[in-house]
Design goal:
The complex is a heterodimer of chains A (414) and B (110). With 414 residues, chain A is mostly helical. Chain A folds into 3 domains: 102 residues, no CATH class; 107 residues, no CATH class; 90 residues, Alpha Horseshoe (Serine Threonine Protein Phosphatase 5, Tetratricopeptide repeat), CATH 1.25.40.10. Chain A is built from 20 helices and no strands. In chain A, helix 6 crosses helix 8, helix 7 crosses helix 8 and helix 9 packs antiparallel against helix 10. Chain A starts with a helix and ends with a helix. Chain B is of the alpha+beta class. Chain B has one domain: Dimeric alpha+beta barrel (Alpha-Beta Plaits, 2-Layer Sandwich). Helix content of chain B is 25%, strand content 27%. Chain B is built from 2 helices and 6 strands; from the N terminus they run βαββββαβ. About 6% of the residues of chain B have low confidence. Classes of the chains: A mainly alpha (414), B alpha+beta (110). At the A-B interface, helix 15 and helix 16 of A face helix 1 of B.
Chain lengths: 414, 110
């Protein structure tokens, strides 16, 4: 690999590792210092490698430089050391020399611990996702701004406030105790779930970036399954859910980056390998005596990956949506349940149920009614779709709705 | 929602029959949940029971006066009794000659 490609590649894979270790060594109040140190390390790499050539083991070079930079900073800056050294969480030996352990095991542990620290319910979920992308996924501020369709300043402010809050509340960088783990892991899973959804459903047109978000969410969830303490049934259920959804990546977006609806997808493009992986995680999730919402959602997503036995498939999906809704209401689950109901009991029955949902301000509600009416009352179907078009804010969705309207319009004029 | 009916015989129905009943209930309850009106699906009660009266008088079965028992109860969210009545409209208990009693809940401040 050439230097030009190598540095961005190493930034993606190593920034997060070194930053997590430094955060853990310096403490939660010094996340920004850790980020800056690692950032400086990469700058120095760009300068030095350009002149002297790429070192034999580039990652080890980065580790050594980052480690030395951290030590220098601690030693030289007296003000800094007076302020920080007494609070340093991590082993400080007799000579007051900080030990920064960049072994594979400590890297893994530090990243897991940072995950729990960042997914702290005291900061807004957007900030949790932003910080996760920065600290756990090596995203630059620009990339995060792109992901949220906003600008650098907004993200910088958001992350700054979140770091201040973590400092204020003295959030510890550690794994929760066995007793607390189930409750604490819920926050982590919520953030990972939102991160995945940000990629899977977001309004962003950048397909590469969207896929990246999903891949990162899966990588972090997978990391939780690799540690005995955090390898909980709900974690496996969430990972199964992500695998099932991700299996349709290639099938749901056409060559122009436009969304292809589930019904219209070429099922041969579904990724069998991811489906099999999903099944494996779903099996692993089937222990314990508690079913999380991820269990229901993963089971629903599983049935969506099946292609034979359409009748049974929709009955199962309807039943699972019923049970998901009894566990936790969400408008999207209510709409999807009604769609499944139409597949089992027909459109007329489903329209009665749909109209009870009272989600008039939701564009998907009108999309659903447009779909359900399209075999029964064309005029009404078009009315609903036009309403959906008005309410939708996402370009890709608007396009799908417009296509549908023009299709129905042609039928009407026959 | 308090569901009353005559005891439904042995709860051991055929696998088929059992499934059919629960699907009906599940769809009905799922419909209420889809409107975000379900607080708790509550519980289903068995057919066995005793009633304890003052003076240590114990009678067989859960019956009050008539041969009708409470089969279960759930908690819905509704603005009025009228709205609750609407929600109860398709309750599967009505298909087997039972009835739904709709009561408001008084918040208890502990």
């Amino acid at each position: 690999m050439q230097e030009k490609e190598l540095i961005p590649y190493l930034y993606r894979t190593e920034f997060r590792k070194i930053t997590a270790v430094l955060c853990r060594s310096l403490g939660i109040e010094h996340i920004s210092i850790a980020e800056d140190l690692v950032g400086d390390t990469f700058l120095l790499a760009a300068e030095t490698w350009g002149l002297k050539g790429i070192p034999q083991n580039p990652a080890a070079w980065l580790y050594t430089v980052a480690k030395n930079k951290a030590k220098d900073l601690l030693k030289r800056n007296t003000l800094f050391s007076q302020k920080i050294s007494p609070q340093i969480q991590y082993a400080v030996d007799d000579k007051h020399e900080i030990e920064i352990d960049l072994s594979a095991k400590n890297i893994q542990d530090s990243q897991l611990q940072m995950m729990f620290a960042i997914c702290y319910p005291g900061i807004p979920s957007e900030a949790q996702i932003g910080l996760s992308l920065r600290i756990l996924c090596s995203f630059s501020i620009d990339e995060i701004a792109d992901a949220f369709l906003t600008n650098k300043e907004t993200i910088n402010k958001r992350l700054y406030r979140a770091k201040e809050k973590l400092k204020q509340d003295n959030v510890q960088i550690e794994l929760p105790s066995e007793k607390e783990i189930d409750k604490r892991i819920e926050n982590v899973l919520t953030t990972l779930y939102l991160l995945f959804n940000e990629g899977y459903y977001s309004s962003n047109n950048n397909a590469v970036l969207r896929k990246d978000l999903c891949v990162e969410a899966m990588r972090l969830t997978h990391m939780l399954t690799e540690n005995e303490t955090t390898n909980k049934p709900a974690v496996n259920a969430l990972l199964a859910l992500m695998c099932f959804h991700a299996s349709r990546f290639e099938a749901r977006i056409d060559s122009n980056g436009e969304l292809i609806l589930y019904e219209d997808q070429d099922t041969s493009l579904w990724n069998r390998e991811l489906i099999i992986q999903g099944e494996r995680y779903l099996n692993k999730a089937s222990t314990g005596n508690y079913l999380s919402k991820y269990h229901w959602e993963a089971a629903i997503a599983y049935w969506h990956t099946t292609t034979n036995n359409e009748g049974q498939k929709w009955e199962k999906i309807l039943s699972l949506y019923n049970q998901l809704l009894m566990t936790e209401y969400s408008p999207i689950a209510a709409l999807n349940r009604t769609y499944a109901l139409s597949k089992v009991y027909g459109n007329e029955e489903a329209i009665i149920e749909a109209e009870k949902l009272k989600l008039d301000n939701n564009h998907l509600y009108h999309c659903l009614l447009g779909e359900l009416y399209s075999d029964i009352d064309l005029e009404k179907a078009i009315e609903h779709l036009q309403q959906a078009l008005k309410l939708s804010r996402v370009a890709a969705d608007k396009k799908v709705i417009k296509n549908k309207i023009s299709k129905l319009g042609k039928l009407k004029n026959v | 929602m308090i569901y009353r009916s005559e005891p439904m015989g042995e709860i051991k129905l055929t696998a088929e029959g059992n499934l059919e009943v629960s699907k009906e209930w599940e769809n009905w309850m799922g419909g209420v949940a889809a409107q975000n009106k379900l607080v708790s699906p509550g519980m289903r009660l068995g057919n066995e029971g005793r009633t304890l009266k003052p003076g240590n008088i114990i009678t067989n079965g859960p019956y009050a006066e008539v041969k009708e028992i409470i089969g279960g109860l759930s908690i819905f969210r509704a603005e009025s009794l009228e709205e609750a009545l609407e929600l109860a409209n398709n309750c599967p208990i009505l298909n087997v000659g039972g009835n739904v009693e709709i009561r408001d809940i008084i918040q208890m401040n502990g």
